[in-house]
UniProtKB/TrEMBL annotation:
Transmembrane segments: none annotated. It comes from the Bacteria. It holds the Pfam family CMD. Residues 26-93, 157-216 form the Carboxymuconolactone decarboxylase-like domain. Signal peptide: none annotated. This is Carboxymuconolactone decarboxylase family protein.
């Protein structure tokens, strides 16, 4: 007599809390989704490119195109992530993407290429442009004395301002918010860079990703990329959020 009541209550909870989907049904892991399928596609494209899992990257690229990313947006993500995991991974990702596009074309699928990056008309020095873009990214000016790696190796601080935050961040194919999702996906997947992951998770919050979305990000990493990678990312996120209380 009680079983139908329990089932009914569970069913009501299941369908009223929200859309609940497994990250990987075979693992039996369930959680409430706060990231869109499009968001998740970008996470996996970045992660599989970064760790060199080209077989899974093919599937993620297909999903990404099917979920609404343009060819130029996904290409931009793969190019951009070289700044965090190197040219070899990025180039192998691009080569894999070419194969995916050729296969889709052979099947009669017409993918949308989308806009290319707009020409840069800002005539300021690249260092100054990069500095201004970094301010937009983190929401605060960084004009204090150089510390840590920037003091020890000032040339890399110049490279970061002029190349990463000027040459690359000025390209408007992806938003800052989307670039930061790519960034944490790469750093979480290559591991052993927890201070950077924490910093960029904080920037994700500044750029508009929510705490719930970042929690779901760690679950996606855990169940689609690697258990250790996901657990490490969750630990970093927990420490970041605890520090804000």
């Amino acid at each position: 007599m009680h079983i139908p009541i329990v089932f009914s209550a569970f069913s009501f909870l299941f369908f009223t809390v929200g859309v609940i989907n497994p990250v990987n049904a075979s693992e039996g892991t369930w959680f409430q989704e706060t990231l869109t399928e499009k968001d998740k596609s970008l996470i996996l494209v970045a992660s599989y490119t970064a760790n060199g899992n080209l077989k899974k990257l093919k599937s993620a690229l297909n999903d990404g195109l099917d979920n609404g990313w343009t060819v130029n947006e996904l290409k931009e993500a793969i190019v951009y992530l070289y700044t965090y995991c190197g040219f070899p991974r990025s180039i192998r990702g691009l080569q894999t993407f070419i194969t995916v596009l050729d296969d889709r074309k052979a099947k009669g699928i017409k993918d949308i290429w989308g806009p290319k990056a707009s020409p840069i008309k800002d005539e300021r020095a690249k260092y100054d442009r990069g500095k201004a873009n970094l301010y937009k990214l983190v929401g605060t000016k960084l004009d204090g004395p150089k510390k840590g790696y920037a003091q020890f190796s000032p040339e890399i601080e110049v490279f970061l301002k002029e190349h990463l935050f000027a040459d690359i961040f000025e390209r408007d194919v992806l938003t800052y918010k989307e670039r930061e999702l790519v960034t944490i996906s790469v750093i979480a997947s290559i591991q052993k860079a927890e201070p950077m992951l924490r910093s960029h998770m904080n920037i994700c919050l500044i750029q508009g990703w929510t705490e719930a979305q970042l929690h779901d990000f760690t679950k996606i990493i855990k169940h689609r990329v690697g258990k250790q990678e996901g657990n490490d990312a969750q630990t970093v996120l927990n420490e970041l959020l605890q520090s804000k209380k």
